Amino acid sequence: MSSYVTFRQLQVFVAVIRGGAVSAAARQLSLSQSAASQALGDLERQLGVVLFERLGRRLELNDAGRRLMPYAEKVLNGLDELIDAAREPEGELRGTLHVAASATIGTYLLPMLAGRFIERHPSADLQLRLRNTEEVMRDIQRFDADLGFIEGQCSESRLVSEVWRQDEMVVVAAPQYPLVYRDGLSVEDLQSAQWILREPGSGTRSIFEAAIHPHVERIRVRMELEQHEAIKQAVRAGFGLGCLSRLSVAGELDRGELVALNSPLQLTRLSRWSGIRSDTAVRCGRRSKSSCARPTSDAGPHVFPLSPRFLASPFLASPSLTAPAAVRPLPALRRSV
Q: Could you tell me if 290 and 210 lie in one domain?
């Protein structure tokens, strides 16, 4: 049996099934009836099976034909997909970009940038999950996220991170809170105040603890809450002091619902984006199966280089943001041919 089956023969085979006759298939494919008949006969000879029962001018699909029909359709559909891919714009981003971000970044920075990214790359989807910093790093290591945004340092040696932008945290209180009327908070104020803070493991909590510990050995934590809005509501109610990103309290400060207090704490922090090292990814599998997983150079870290196209998109770059210095693409975004 010969294995030289052509796409034309498969097209005639499927067209005859759908049209019920060689003449109908010939019209659909713009062939002469004799050419369609010859293509169908050649296919049966090369496969070594009869595909139809001949009933006068009509053809009835037999058991062998029914068994082979799905395979023929699959081959033809694959050809259609190849043609469609070839017609798409060169370098178009496709697939789903999974992003994990700490609460401040994911709530106050990424939604607008993500919207611009989707507008520029309509064939790509973006899924954003809000996590604390430790969970973001864990998601990237497990390949549950392609890209992560965190506040502060990346403590995982298996991850590569780049500084994205600078952020400022502020100590806030309700307008009626007693300490508001001081010129600034003293060390004694920091120690005696009741604090309403993010949960351990969050970048906001880590930055606050690193800033206050040189001044105060122990603090009084009245509440630990996972959401910025919950902290703001508790602080507005006068239950204690909070320490949050200025981004997250800008509206409340403008409306006079919260007051920013001067303090001796150094609360500037750097937001970072993180990705998995490609040498680690190759060992772990999953999304690392992409051909994009390769070292960038012998001198630098082994990372997924984000494509220049991705970095040029508004997702990471805007007039107020500093784009990362390294360039790295994500295995979840495949490029059309």
A: no
Task: Check which CATH number belongs to the domain holding 46 and give it.
Answer: 1.10.10.10
pLDDT in tens, 123-165: 888 999 998 888 888 898 888 988 888 876 777 878 888 888 7
What residues contact 280, with CB distance under 8 A and at least 6 apart? 141, 158
| Domains of the chain: total | 3
Are both 171 and 214 inside the same structural domain? yes
Report helix, strand or coil for 221.
strand
pLDDT band, residue 270 (cuts 50/70/90) = low
**Dihedral sign computed on CA atoms, order 272, 143, 125, 133:** negative
pLDDT, one tens digit per residue, over 70-120 is 999 998 888 888 877 766 666 677 788 899 998 888 888 888 888 888 888
DSSP run (H or E) holding 255: helix 246-255
Q: Are residues 255 and 312 in the same domain?
A: no
Does 319 reside within a domain? yes
Q: Are residues 251 and 291 in the same domain?
A: no
Domain that holds residue 73: 7-87
DSSP labels, 83-132: HHHHHSPTT-EEEEEEEEEEHHHHHHTHHHHHHHHHHH-TTEEEEEEEE-
61, 28: one domain: yes
- What is d(CA 292, CA 302) in angstroms, rounded to the nearest whole number? 12
Query: Same domain for 141 and 193?
Result: no
For tokens 């809450």, the residue is 225
* 3-class secondary structure, 136: helix
Residues 61 and 14 in one domain: yes
More confident residue, 305 or 71: 71
Task: Tell me how crowded residue 214 is: count the other CB atoms within 10 A of its CB.
Answer: 11
Distances in whole angstroms, Cα of residue 96 to Cα of each of 103, 126, 147, 244: 21, 6, 11, 31
